[in-house]
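TICKET: design request
STATUS: open
ATTACHED STRUCTURE:
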């Protein structure tokens, strides 16, 4: 396993902003699965929220290798790709989706899970390689 990579300043700025990202995971048959996601970071780790049982959650449980790509809406030829390994945790799941809801929608609480049996999962992606363009 390689040593974790540090996020350059442009990557930190993009993950701190309210830009959408695309998360790529690996399907059981080896094909890629892509999802548009909200993101944030904790140091050099990228954080994504998902729901237990969704395709990306099942894919990452089976194979934690993944990639996150983010680019600014105003400058789509500028991007940051983070290739890494995901770890999954239930701790802080509700707090993370609420943090993302404030960042992306201006709402203190994410309403999409209210009244459901959804169990929130924190996806923590530790960078192995960072590509910026």
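STATUS: resolved
RESOLUTION: sequence designed for all positions
ATTACHED SEQUENCE:
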């Amino acid at each position: 396993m390689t040593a974790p990579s540090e996020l350059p300043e442009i990557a930190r700025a993009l993950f701190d902003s309210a830009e959408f990202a695309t998360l790529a995971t690996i399907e059981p048959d080896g094909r890629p699965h892509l999802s548009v996601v909200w993101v944030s970071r904790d140091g050099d780790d990228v954080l994504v929220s998902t729901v237990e049982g969704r395709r990306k959650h099942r894919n990452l449980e089976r194979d934690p290798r993944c990639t996150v790509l983010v680019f600014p809406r105003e400058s789509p030829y500028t991007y940051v790709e983070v290739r890494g390994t995901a770890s999954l945790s239930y701790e802080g799941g509700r707090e993370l989706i609420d943090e993302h809801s404030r960042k992306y929608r201006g709402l203190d609480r994410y309403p999409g899970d209210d009244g459901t049996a959804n169990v929130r999962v924190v996806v923590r992606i530790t960078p192995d390689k960072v590509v910026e363009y």
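CLOSING REMARK: The CA atoms of residues 19 and 40 lie 10 Å apart. The chain has a mean pLDDT of 94.
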